[in-house]
């Protein structure tokens, strides 16, 4: 197994690592991260690294600390101790697209306005053809002028995915982005995300072993109290893998067993 995601990687090895693989997109380096809420230690001295251009799926039981970890990496929450930095040595905030568990669409903006919000906030010209392309790919081309309240939960999630992809950031952090989608739409949007994020550094939280095995170069499982990362897990072949790929089916079973064992 090529362990490109390394829990507790040696600092000297980190210093000699390729800084700009895969067209220059930086990876994510997490060092000795500790998070406490009062007497509760969610995780302690968590260290791992995701190489530039890698798509990593993070799994673990509810409440183990996945979303908290993602928010800290995104710079949206503070850790009690430890550091998060790009593998190029530069900070990560400002170079990420983040999609949280809630779609966070602004209710008074249309779908198109929500998708292009980042550009408008940055006072950049809106790339309308790109936004239209994305909305078409997520099946919302006829709903560009709709307000979020007029959409179903799955449609809102697709609009949020389009907004995340619109940003073209080198690092993409997603917290259960496909959870509200039906099985067919989910497979379609997974393929779209894999295609458009092919060279990006992606950390995806999911509860779905099939999704993790289809999309991830590597999979990580967070478990325990305080939470620890198990050995990273690699599915053979390149993502996106077909749902009936034998490697996906075998890995899915293995992963499910790991998750059950980790929850005991
Ligand atoms: N702001 C907060 N204040 C106090 N405790 C918090 C806060 N945010 C998270 N927690 C606690 O930290 C732990 C980890 O929460 P987190 O949301 O990161 O888990 P998770 O693995 O993402 O769960 P899920 O899969 O259900 O989304 C939980 O016990 C939660 O109650």
Overview in brief:
Keywords: ATP-binding, Nucleotide-binding, Transport. It comes from Faunimonas pinastri. Helix content is 34%, strand content 21%.
Q: What do we call the CATH homologous superfamily of one domain?
A: P-loop containing nucleotide triphosphate hydrolases
The mean pLDDT is: 88
How helix-rich are the residues, as a percent range?
25-40%
Question: Which small compounds were modeled alongside the protein?
Answer: adenosine-5'-triphosphate
Radius of gyration: 18 Å
Secondary-structure content class: alpha/beta
What's the CATH topology label of one domain?
A: Rossmann fold
> What is the annotated CATH architecture of one domain?
3-Layer(aba) Sandwich
Tell me the number of strands.
Answer: 10
Determine and state the CATH class of one domain.
Alpha Beta
Shape: globular
Question: What are the secondary-structure elements, in order, as H or E?
Answer: HHEEEHEEHHHHEHEHEEEH
Strand content: 15-25%
Count, helices: 10
Task: Describe this structure as you would to a colleague.
InterPro entries: AAA+_ATPase (IPR003593), ABC_transporter-like_ATP-bd (IPR003439), ABC_transporter-like_CS (IPR017871), ABC_transporter_ATP-bind (IPR050166), P-loop_NTPase (IPR027417). Residues 28-249 form the ABC transporter domain. This is Putative hydroxymethylpyrimidine transport system ATP-binding protein. It holds the Pfam family ABC_tran. Keywords: ATP-binding, Nucleotide-binding, Transport. This protein is an alpha/beta fold and 264 residues long. The protein has a domain at 1-95 and 171-181 and 200-264: 3-Layer(aba) Sandwich (Rossmann fold), CATH 3.40.50.300. The chain is 34% helix and 21% strand. It contains ten helices and ten strands. The strands form two sheets. Strands 3, 5, 6, 7, 8, 9 and 10 form a seven-stranded mixed beta sheet that branches. The protein has a three-stranded antiparallel beta sheet with strand order 2-1-4, covered by helices on one side. Helix 6 packs across helix 7 and helix 9 (209-215) crosses helix 10 (246-263). The longest helix is centred in the C-terminal third of the chain and has 18 residues, at 246-263. The chain starts with 10 loop residues before the first helix and ends with a helix. The model is unreliable at 1-21 (pLDDT under 50). The protein binds adenosine-5'-triphosphate (ATP). Residues 37, 42, 60, 62-68 line the site of adenosine-5'-triphosphate.
């Amino acid at each position: 197994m090529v362990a490109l995601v390394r829990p507790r990687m040696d600092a000297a090895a980190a210093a000699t690592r390729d800084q700009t693989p895969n067209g220059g997109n930086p990876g994510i380096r997490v060092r000795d991260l500790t998070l406490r809420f009062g007497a509760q230690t969610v995780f302690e001295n968590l260290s791992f690294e995701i190489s530039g251009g890698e798509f990593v799926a993070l799994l673990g039981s509810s409440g183990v600390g996945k979303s908290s970890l993602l928010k800290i990496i995104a710079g949206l929450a503070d850790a009690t101790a430890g550091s998060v930095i790009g593998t190029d040595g530069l900070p990560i905030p400002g170079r990420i697209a983040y999609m949280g568990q809630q779609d966070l669409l602004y209710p008074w903006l249309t779908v198109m306005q929500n998708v292009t919000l980042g550009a408008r906030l940055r006072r950049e010209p809106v790339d309308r053809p790109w936004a239209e392309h994305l909305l078409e790919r997520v099946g919302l081309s006829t709903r560009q002028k709709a307000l979020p309240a007029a959409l179903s939960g799955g449609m809102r999630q697709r609009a949020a995915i389009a907004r995340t992809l619109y940003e073209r950031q080198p690092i993409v952090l997603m917290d259960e982005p496909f959870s509200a989608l039906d099985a067919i739409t989910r497979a379609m949007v997974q393929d779209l995300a894999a295609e458009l994020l092919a060279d990006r550094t992606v950390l995806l939280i999911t509860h779905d072993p099939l999704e993790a095995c289809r999309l991830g170069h590597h999979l990580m499982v967070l478990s325990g109290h305080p939470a620890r990362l198990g050995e990273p897990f690699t599915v053979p072949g390149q993502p996106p893998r077909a749902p009936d790929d034998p490697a996906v089916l075998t890995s899915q079973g293995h992963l499910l067993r790991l998750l059950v064992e980790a929850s005991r």
